[in-house]
Amino acid sequence: MADNNPNPERERRILEAAAKLIAHYGFDKTTVSDIANEAGISKGAVYLHYKSKDDLFDALIIHEGMKMLDVLIQRMEADPDAGSIFALYQHAMVTTYGSPLVLALMRRDARVLGDMARRLKDKQFTLDSDFIRHELVTQLQAANVIRKDVDANIVAYVLAIIKSGFIMIGDFIPNEDAPPLDEVGKTIGQILERGLAPEGGSDKQAAKAVMEQFLYMTRDVLNQHRGQSL
Questions:
Q1: Interior angle at CA 151, CA 192 and CA 105, nearest 5
Q2: What's the first-to-final CA gap in the chain, in angstroms?
Q3: How far apart are CA 167 and CA 165, in angstroms?
Q4: Buried-exposed string 70-106: b where 16+ CB fall within 10 A, e elsewhere
Q5: Domains, the chain, ranges and CATH?
Q6: Model-level pTM?
Q7: What are the tens digits of pLDDT across the range 110-151?
Q8: Shortest CA distance to 22 belongs to which of 115, 94, 88?
């Protein structure tokens, strides 16, 4: 970022304008001038915050990830049954569809990402790393939330398969033909609960503690990436 003390409100407008335009037109077809016009500021003002469009895009990924995480935390806090990885998965999948840019990033959508797709080809989005998935499953097994007789790597892999299918399903079934996302997420959560919860049910208090630690750890990771190149 070019400015160590940017105007937060102006920065927010730039990022929201960029998210809207890039998700609609794609990274390659969206210019800094387009973003400035959408934000209602001058092109020069954009460069007070970001030295280049690539630099802006890096910040935008973190911004959208933080927004998605905030919504996820709110959904989890409002759900009395949120003390399990199954509820986390339910809410995470639904929340992902609330950010077209994050969804495009997870899908590696070349139309949206354009030239940035090559740069991101070998990188995992911060909220979706293999390490985080495996560590979370391991912690939930230790907290008696997930059955311990199933290998953590296999559980993490199965969850990744379900997530990937949920993200890519739009390529096979049009959105207008799909059931409501909340209902789909809830059903997936129930299936996972019945298949992976230990006999007698999960320890929801222990699960809630692990979930909170995981979500705030993810927030810390995103904060560490602010102003850094992906």
A1: 60
A2: 13
A3: 5
A4: ebbbebbeeeeebbbbbbbbbbbbbbbeebbbbbbbb
A5: 1-51 (1.10.10.60), 59-225 (1.10.357)
A6: 0.74
A7: 888 887 776 665 444 444 555 556 788 888 888 888 899 999
A8: 115
